[in-house]
Amino acid sequence: MTVDAEIASRLRACGLEVFDSFTGAEPSVAEAFRHVVHIDATPIQRIPVNSSDAGEILNRSWKSHALRAKVIAGDGSFLVAGGLNHGWVHVRMTETTDITSLEGQGGDLLLIARSFDGHHVCAASREEGEYWILETEFPFPEPGEAHS
Question: In whole angstroms, what is the distance from residue 52 CA to residue 122 CA?
């Protein structure tokens, strides 16, 4: 399935190599979103936006957390949310990847990344005066059991 041109352009602009849409695997973007972005969400790291090197810290920290959480594969690839209506997009980090480039004109930033097996999610968002890094893990279903 082909990635929406606007989404692919936005992802390439932040230095990600874009491959294709990724379909048929859980959790969905909506389910991952609900698990990491909610009123009771607790970030694993907070970075003040007004810090002179906030973007650099966010990039380095998010990548470190995503690698540790097994979201990013050995070749630098992972799935990123293309949007609630567009599902997951297969991408790969490059030397120029800068997730702060995804920040919108209003200062909004939201990146939700997922491992290929669907069990690990690592997100970055901007909440008021801070960048937040959030993680969640989806349980491994028992053999013959549906993913909940």
Answer: 24
